[in-house]
Write a structure and sequence with these properties.
With about 425 residues, the protein is α/β, with parallel strands linked by helices. It has helices at about 15-30, 65-80, 100-110, 160-165, 175-180, 185-195, 210-220, 230-240, 270-280, 290-295, 300-305, 325-335, 335-355, 365-375, 420-425; strands at about 10-15, 35, 50-55, 85-90, 115-120, 130, 135, 140, 170-175, 200-205, 225, 260-265, 285, 315-320, 360-365, 380-390, 390-395, 405-410. Strands 9-10-5-11-4-1-3-2-16-17-18-15-12-14-13 form a 15-stranded mixed β-sheet, sandwiched between helices. Strand 16 and strand 17 (about 390-395) form a beta hairpin. The longest helix has 21 residues, at about 335-355. It binds adenosine-5'-diphosphate. Adenosine-5'-diphosphate (ADP) binds next to helix 12, helix 13 and helix 14. Adenosine-5'-diphosphate binds next to helix 12, helix 13 and helix 14.
């Protein structure tokens, strides 16, 4: 394999939505970023980019498996030239008692020979700050926040030095806010002290955005860091300032042409409003959820409906319904069975639409988007401009069908004219 580009930043994210959030943050900070779904094939052809975020689902799986997958991701990223790898975790440090943050950090540290790993989940713009090693969620310590009752990863200790030491084989130290506030040299000196004592990881305090920039400058010269999108932002700003980016790289938003279609599986208030507004500008088909759940071929009906219309402009196909209608379907068939059947029907429709030439696809609904992306087997996405906060235009990378633009929206995201806004940016 001949790597087509040398990455300046590699990231491994322990869940998909966290990966998207990081990829979007890096893009906004000026790094051209691809998010991949899982560890990519060795021969994945990348456009010219600065950063790749490999999305794993490794937050709550067995620790050994999380380690194996993360190491494979690291190997791929280093093979593409990434000198720094960020292991992206949740900004609330979500982890099970056995990890997986500590075990993955230990394995990656051993693989790259890092003396001391910088660790901080701080992301002040979303209310995550770290002081004296204690993580705050808004104004309360982590162990008093709703995370104390999380169904998979309840967090009972806000002292991250203690939490990480419990999970890791190495000793864990602290770089406190006083050092961070004094600047990059003070942080480097503190890390050197810790490394000299054989301490292999340091929780780094950060309360303000400027702290992340200091941390990013220091981390950029290391091989490995662990943190949330906040440290990603710090690393991106450090790289942009050092002009390691490629300003003339291909444009994620360059037109692809071809037919456009929208799919809505979200039943959120925001999406229902967005669909009502879309009815004024494009043909809309409302699926019959009852027919989907009882195995009637609604997907075929939808594709037969869309087929002749696609040449005339975008169409929207929606399963979305009011809370009362959703409750009625769920009462008859069960919440999970109904949700799953409808998601799969949406995936069938997406597959059929792409087969009949659709190259611009907009999907509303988090689970719905997951089902569609899995079905289309797209290896990765180059992240483009934001349609709405947190919803970028995505250009498929390595897709069987070639060039394609996609937007994936969680239910509540986007303004009232979301579908029109998206189509405006996806030419
Ligand atoms: P959101 O981002 O708003 O949570 P999701 O796609 O994640 O949207 O979740 C919506 C869920 O509701 C999916 O499982 C979807 O299949 C299901 N669903 C969609 N339409 C209906 C409907 N009419 N009745 C019952 N469930 C539905």
């Amino acid at each position: 394999m001949t790597p087509s580009v040398e990455l300046s930043l590699g990231c491994i994210a322990d869940d998909y939505t966290g990966a998207s959030d990081l990829a979007n943050t890096l893009t906004r900070a000026g790094l051209r970023t691809v998010q991949t779904i899982g560890v990519p094939a060795d021969d994945l052809a990348l456009p010219e980019v600065d950063a790749v975020v490999v999305s794993l689902k490794s937050r709550s799986i067995e620790a050994g498996l999380a380690v194996t997958r993360s190491r494979a991701a690291e190997k791929w990223l280093r093979g593409r030239g990434a000198s720094h790898v960020l292991f992206k975790i949740c900004s609330t440090f979500d982890s099970t008692d056995a990890g997986n943050i500590g075990p993955v950090m230990d394995a990656l540290r051993a693989d790259c020979g890092e003396a001391v790993v910088l660790v901080t989940p701080a992301f002040p713009e979303t209310g995550r700050t770290v002081y004296q090693g204690n993580l705050f969620v808004g104004s309360v310590p982590l162990n008093e926040s709703p995370l104390k009752d999380h169904p998979l990863n309840p967090m009972h200790d806000s002292n991250l030095v203690r939490v990480l030491a419990h999970q890791s084989k190495t000793q864990v130290g602290l770089v406190d806010l006083a050092a961070v506030a004094r600047g990059a040299d003070a942080v480097r000196a503190r890390l050197a002290d810790l490394a000299a004592k054989g301490i292999g990881a340091a929780i780094v305090d950060a309360v303000f955005d400027s702290d992340l920039e200091t941390i990013g400058r220091v981390a950029a010269a290391h091989r490995l860091s662990v943190g949330a999108s906040g440290i990603g932002l710090g690393l991106a700003r450090a790289q942009v300032a050092a002009r390691e980016t490629r300003p003339n790289a291909a444009d994620a938003g360059a037109p692809v042409g071809g037919p456009a279609a929208c799919l809505a599986g979200s039943c959120s208030q925001a999406t229902l409003q967005q669909i009502a507004n879309a009815e004024k500008i494009m043909p809309v088909l409302h699926l019959d959820p009852e027919r989907i759940v009882t195995g009637k071929d609604e997907a075929k009906r939808a594709l037969d409906w869309a087929g002749p219309r696609l040449a005339d402009g975008p169409v929207l196909i929606a399963s979305s319904a009011t809370p009362e209608a959703v409750a009625a379907v769920q009462a008859r068939h069960g919440r999970e069975a109904a949700g799953h059947a409808i998601e799969q029907a949406m995936a069938d429709i997406a597959e059929g639409l792409v087969r009949s030439g659709v190259r611009r696809l907009i999907v509303a609904g988090g689970e719905t988007s997951g089902a569609v992306v899995d079905r289309l087997q797209i290896p990765g996405f180059l992240v483009g401009a934001e349609i709405a906060a947190g919803v970028p235009v995505l250009r498929a990378v390595g897709a069987r069908e070639g060039d394609m633009l996609i937007a994936l929206k969680s239910g509540n995201f986007g303004g009232p004219q979301f579908f029109a806004d998206a189509l405006g940016l996806m030419r």
